[in-house]
Amino acid sequence: MAAKRENWGSHIGFVFAAAGSAIGLGNIWKFPYLAGKNGGAAFILIYLISVFFIGLSLMIAEILIGRKSQLNPVGTYRTLSGGNRKWTFVGYLGVFTGFIILSYYNVVAGWSVGYFIEGLRGRIVSFTSSKQATTFFNQCVMNPAWIIGYQAIFSLFTMAVVYFGVIQGIEKISKILMPIFIAILLALVIWGISLEGSEEGLSFLLKPKWSNVSGRTILEALGQAFFSLSIGMGALLTYGSYLGPKNSILKSSLMIVILDTLVALLAGIAIFTSVFAMGFSPDAGTGLVFSVLPAVFSKMPGGNIVALLFFAFLTIASLTSAISLLEVITAYFVDEKKYSRHKVVVIAGLIVFLVGIPSALSFGSLSHVTLLKRSIFDFFDFISSNVLLPIGGLFMALFVGWVVKKTPMLEEFRKGAQGWVDAHVIYGKKRKEKQAILTLGNVWFFVVKYIAPVIILLVFLYSIGIL
Ligand code: PHE
User: Fold this and answer.
1) Which region, left, alpha or beta, applies to residue 40 given φ > 0 means left and ψ of -120 to 50 means alpha?
2) Alpha carbons 83 and 119: distance in angstroms, whole number
3) How far, in whole angstroms, is CA 111 from its chain's centroid?
4) What are the extents of the domains in the chain?
5) Contacts of 321 (CB under 8 A, 6+ apart)
6) Mutation test of ligand 1: which of 107, 321, 327 has the most ligand atoms closer than 8 Å to its C-beta?
7) Nearest atom of ligand 1 to the alpha carbon of 229
8) Atom of ligand 1 at shortest distance to CA of 317?
9) Whose CA is nearest to atom 10 of ligand 1?
10) Contact by Cβ (8 Å): 386, 364
11) What distance in angstroms lies between residue 337's CA and the mean position of ligand 1's atoms?
12) 418-441 pLDDT tens trace
């Protein structure tokens, strides 16, 4: 075990950092376009079921094994399996997934930085039609200097934060950025709802259209739950490894899941009320936020300010997620290989940036290259959300349920839980508190051991057409 591991300065610091990891492009860029593509409310319902039935339990499991081992993903699987090296592959898979996700994540986050800068020059509110806005988007992403340049700038932001470590870098920046982020989001929601014709957007989000739902939709909703909650690759495990024994993991996880879900829904409301009120179509796909919203902003009074707020908001959200991805890679090399944090951040950051270049170019000069009928960018995104993260989550659940076993896991579950559960959960009265924690622990363990693995497998089989 590492001798002196940094610990979060406060519980709220941890919750903000972990919520910062969860809340990101997944909520604001991906969730709305997936919902738009998959029939709105129907997709959202399946998504919510995935989040609360599986996501929450897996999040608890992931933070919990990280706190128990106080190590990076690879070290965690090795130590908690009692030195059984067979299981370290789940940890390596996580570090690998981190590389893949961060590589294309930097690209989209770079667009956001780019749009903010274009916004400062007044250039993203000058459109009279969504076609014009789409043409502008295409010009940006097809220009290698633009797209790689902003990808590089965003990569440097991320590296700078992780370079300073957990408390000085990640916790500090998360505590400053999260409240700003929430304030901007609320402003955008109020703005969207106040527009004339916003009801249509709301009804799109609330009334399910089941005709658009297929096996693929269910896989996408489950994959999105993993992606959005940052589960299945060790980001939360790594953040959990900096957590002390006094905090209730159940409480933290509930807060993170609720915050993440609220932000996705609120972002959906802000975006679809505006999209419908301004007469645009919700199913624009990957470009929804970048090619439709600017046209929406162009039509709004004060649109330039809203646009600047929005892209600042998106950049902040992306940054707090990207740092958690880079932290996984960093923690692995620091713990296992004993490299210095500074060296790892610079080298790994650079490699991730280089790996991301083909994704960046897949909108322009490499657009003809396809993998499994997808562009390089879409392939990386599909593989990580819908394959790597669910597989990582599946093996993590099997590991916790069948390898580590119940007693040590429930012990860890109970640590820090007292003094909180009594006030909030079913039983109410103080003397029943211990029993309440025990029951919750048992339910959680049952879900992780049996229900989550079975559901993940079923969804896989169903989506590839075996069921
Ligand atoms: N949850 C982040 C988002 O929604 C992405 C992410 C996935 C971060 C996996 C860390 C690990 O944008």
Assistant:
1) left
2) 53
3) 17
4) 33-463
5) 20, 21, 22, 23, 24, 25, 26, 105, 230
6) 321
7) 1
8) 12
9) 230
10) no
11) 25
12) 766 544 555 455 557 788 888 999
Q: Which residues line the pocket of ligand 1, CB cutoff 6 A? A: 21-22, 24-27, 101, 227-228, 230, 233, 235, 321, 324-325
With cut-offs at 50, 70 and 90, classify the pLDDT of residue 208.
confident
> Which residues 6+ apart lie within 8 Å of 163 measured at CB?
169, 341, 342, 345, 346
Q: pLDDT, tens digit, for every residue of 308-349?
A: 988 988 998 999 999 999 999 999 999 999 999 999 999 999
Contacts of 254 (CB under 8 A, 6+ apart): 56
Task: Give me ligand 1 centre to Cα 411, in Å.
Answer: 28
53, 217 Cβ separation under 8 angstroms: no
Stretch (H or E) spanning 416: none
Using DSSP, how many helices (H) and how many strands (E) does the chain show?
23, 2
Using a cut of 0.85, tell me whether the model's pTM lies above it: yes
Pick the CATH number of 33-463 from 1.10.287, 2.60.40, 1.20.1740, 3.40.50: 1.20.1740
Question: pLDDT tens digits, residue range 280-317?
Answer: 888 877 778 898 789 888 887 888 988 898 898 899 89
**How deeply is 124 buried, as exposed, middle or buried, from its count of CB atoms within 10 A (0-12, 13-18, 19+)?**
buried
Which residues are 370's β-sheet partners?
375
Give the Å distance between the CA of 438 and the centre of ligand 1: 31
Q: How far apart are CA 414 and CA 217, in angstroms?
A: 36
- How long a stretch of residues is the chain? 467
Atom of ligand 1 nearest to the CA of 25: 12
Q: Tell me the average pLDDT across 261-273.
A: 93
Q: How far is the CA of 61 from the centre of ligand 1 (A)?
A: 17
Rounded-to-integer distance, Cα 232 and Cα 229, Å:
9
